[in-house]
Amino acid sequence: MDIKAIIIDEIGLQRTITRLSHEILERNKGSQNIVLVGMRTRGEFLAHRIQDKIREIDKSEIPLGVLDVTLYRDDFRTRLKQPEVSVTDISFDLTEKDIVLIDDVLYTGRTVRAALDALMDLGRPNTIQFCVLVDRGHREMPIVADFVGKNIPTSINEEVKVRLKEIDSEDAVYLIDITNINTEN
Amino acid sequence: MPLSSPHLLGLQGVPREDIQLILDTSTTFREVLERPIKKVPTLQGKTIVNLFYENSTRTRLSFELAQKRLSADTINFSTASSSTKKGETFKDTVRNIEAMKVDMIIVRHESAGVPAYLTKISKANIINAGDGRHEHPTQALLDMYSIREKLGKIEGLKVCIVGDITHSRVALSNIYGLISMGAQVSVCGPSTMIPKDIEKLGVKVYNSIDKAISEHDVLNVLRIQIERKANSTFPTLREYHNYFGITVERLEKHNKEILILHPGPINRGVELSSEVADGPYQIILNQVTNGVAIRMAVLYLLGTRP
Amino acid sequence: MKILLKGLNLLDPEQKLDKKADLLINDGIIEKIGNIKSSEVEENNIFDFNDMVCVPGLFDMHVHLREPGREDEETVVTGCNGAAAGGFTGIACMPNTNPAADSAEVIKLIKEKASNHLVDVYPVGAVSVDRKGEALAPIAELYEAGAVAFSDDGVAVKTAALLRNALEYAGMYNAPIIEHCEDESLADGAMNESLVSTQLGLPSIPTVAEDITVSRDILMAEYLNKAVHIAHISSKRSIELVREAKARGVKVTAEVTPHHFTLTDDNLKTYDTNYKMNPPLRGKADLEAVIEGLKDGTIDCIASDHAPHSIEEKEMEFIYAPNGILGLESQLGLTLSELVNKNHLTLSDLVYKLSINPRRILNINVPSIKEGEKANLTIFDPHNIWTVNVSAFKSKSKNSPFDKRLLTGKPVAVINKGKMFYENELKSI
Known about the structure:
The complex is a heterotrimer. By secondary structure, chain A is an alpha/beta fold. Chain A has a single domain (about 5-175), classed as Rossmann fold, CATH 3.40.50.2020. Chain A contains three helices and eight strands; from the N terminus they run βαβαββαββββ. Chain A has helices spanning about 10-25, 40-60, 110-120; strands at about 5-10, 35-40, 65, 100-105, 125-135, 145-150, 160-165, 170-175. Chain A starts with a strand and ends in an 8-residue tail after the last strand. Helices cover about 40% and strands about 15% of the residues of chain B. Chain C folds into two domains: about 1-55 and about 370-395 and about 405-429, Roll (Urease, subunit C, domain 1), CATH 2.30.40.10; about 55-360, Metal-dependent hydrolases (TIM Barrel). In chain C, a hairpin with a 2-residue loop joins strand 18 (about 420) and strand 19. In chain C, helix 1 (about 75-85) packs parallel to helix 10, helix 4 crosses helix 6 and helix 7 (about 235-245) runs parallel beside helix 8 (about 285-295). Chains in contact: A-B, B-C. At the B-C interface, helix 5 of B face helix 5 of C.
């Protein structure tokens, strides 16, 4: 990996999670109607961390679900690989809830668009709010995040790599150079 | 890793990884079937033809539902309709359908080898929904999925297929699939209904249903084709039921956990008694639900294959 | 006119002839055998065959010409063209035409259509009216019109009683009954019964279906002391039965097709209908028994069971497709490649199997390579390596599994009735 910069380190990540959790509670005036939906894979882990933090600061238990958007993607025909599907696990009713959709990186916005379609098929929520750890710009859809951990302008030759201890060996967010690598998004 | 072939003609020779992928992918679609809106846009724009030269309501319905739930466009062609009655050859029918630009063809036919033949005259993905006595891969896949759903695994299980093995494509596909996935497979039925060479496929032969029940974890009970009675491979349905039928008394004699599967439609009182068909051992309706999920998985994996 | 054939290896085992020599033919008669000077003959009529083998004209005793009834698949003339291209100067044709060859008119029609051709055609008449297995066909009339044998080919003679009557009646004329041995009640299948049929999910015909009828026919021929000929034998057990019967002195003879000494039921795995015929391709043990049977004389001759079918008939779902494949133009090449070049048969054996024995079974005069005799010759190159090209076959149909197959041994020319077919040209000589 050709690392250009560390955008967020371990301590920074903890602080960001804390801030985002407060912002979510502030915006929604408390936790009564909120549900968290994490997007696979790392969005799910961030959602759990936010759920834990809210439990700590607000003493409330917020329902959490996991969303797999593979079936809603718009890029089947152009992909060189066939994406692996995994399971959506949302065991509560979404109707009239305020959903906080959580993901690690916001880039073109297409994944969020697919997620909105998926959530609409699961029920009729009151609101859908979007919380993202890093917004790296280059939107191709009219999507805006409601809660942002960090805004990092990037070029197309760069990529934002999020590492979380639940699945990787560390907690960190890197900016890497991909000029020499063939990427398939 | 996508499936190794653009077609699903059978389970013979299909790598274990492919079967595993289909079963795992089916879990995703099984969840979709629990939603209020049982639809995903994944195969939007794909055109799928159900080419059924043999009568079948349930398999065709199951495929059709799977297609619609993936947002694909479906066309149904059955021989009751026009052109075959007008004498059109199979090859011409397929050519005409191809000319309408279809992406996938699901085919059922009484002659073995038709799906393989289709791969030579068509550019579409071909899925075998049953060819003669040869294979019925989606049935075996949904059987295996249902077993795994209930018992948590397939490897190491002892599965016995009961009934008219010689005339059964469900039996053959199950034999290939289950052995690939590490199960021990046997067949049970009157000798007249078991092919002479079946042991060479790696299965044991039982002529006693009691012995089969006592030695297996799962029974997949095939329907006796009453239409075939003229074949005289067994004297009467009554005799078949008395000596090979699954009844509650038979099952309870052995006092064990056993799973009963049946591909449907059931001949109540012949291969299964009504109590068994409605009782706690069987998972027949689960099979039907899973069938749609399995077919969605197969359509998805072939339809989005790069 | 005089023609000179130079450099031939003449082989006629009945004449104990096996030497390299030239042949001088004058107006269709062999004038001289030996070292002949080219000056005697006009240059256009000198053919240098440079070491190729020349034998008495080959004879295929089991051919399906589709005339009358299916002239779209083959006619008498196109079938004969195929025979000539395959190296045959004579054929016997089967009665399952439409209408069947159960009347003198059909026999005469066939003979008339072939009358001008280089190839001699000997019709086989039906045993029963319309081959239905009920009433005896007018055998005497058919014999008088030119039938040399009788058969219900496509099926076995339906009952033992009918077989008895046919053997006795045709026996008056010394004409054999040619039997397609297969028990009707076991015959509902599309391939041989074996592990392969189980794996392919196809309904199948067990070898015992053939054995049962072979047994019946041998016992009946023995009881009546009449001649029965087993067509296209394919089962190991049947061959054993014929061997034992011959040892007892029963008048039974047998033929085998080239595909039964070349292919097995493994070839059906692609569901290609060009491997679908009746009797079906059998297993390895049966193929080996066929070769043994040819070597020890149990099987008297080789005959192709040439069965042309139109494209739309063969390009069908497997269980619906009709049985049968072409045979005339690949037969000699397969015999040379699979039997002679693999040292199972000698070239002399080949002459018996493909020229002398089939005629003897049908009581037809056997041609000889001898001065003063009518020239009835087949010339072939036993070493020529060539690729079969079915689209170039003379037959009207193209249903052969041997397309693109590499063979060693090729027919080169045939001469009969004052005509020669060589290098794709027919000339009068």
